[in-house]
Amino acid sequence: MESIIIHPIGIIHTPHNDVKNMPIQPIAADGITGRIELLPEYVPGLKDLEGFSHITLLYHFHKIEGYELEVVPFMDTKKHGVFSTKAPKRPNAIGISTVKLTGIEGNILYFEQADMLDCTPLIDIKPFYPRYDNRFDVKIGWLEKNKDLPLEKLRSDERFK
Is 2 part of any domain? Predict the structure, then answer.
């Protein structure tokens, strides 16, 4: 299979310098702000983005070393296949977070609900559109038994360094 080369389009800045005690999802990071420093050549791609309240960020888990195909995720105590979790220690170390866009000034985007490490390489930005991005009548597999866990209180730890 052919290799894929992806170049960062910017850097995500957040107050998180260590994975320990970070929120495990954006929904659990209310009030935690971040900013994206987009590379200047990509600024024209921001046209009309200010009209969206939320954006989806794709980024590289730059501090992850290696991967595991079975992991104990933050919302359980037993192992699951990595593709049935949102664990960061994955074969391609790609993260995804939908965050609240609060402003754009030139090549800087401001957002809330930061759940990624400082200096995370940004791969892409997509607008969040509820009609396309939300799903109803879904099954959530092993998460069903943990669906009522208070995400706001769950924090990451050292297991995915």
Answer: no
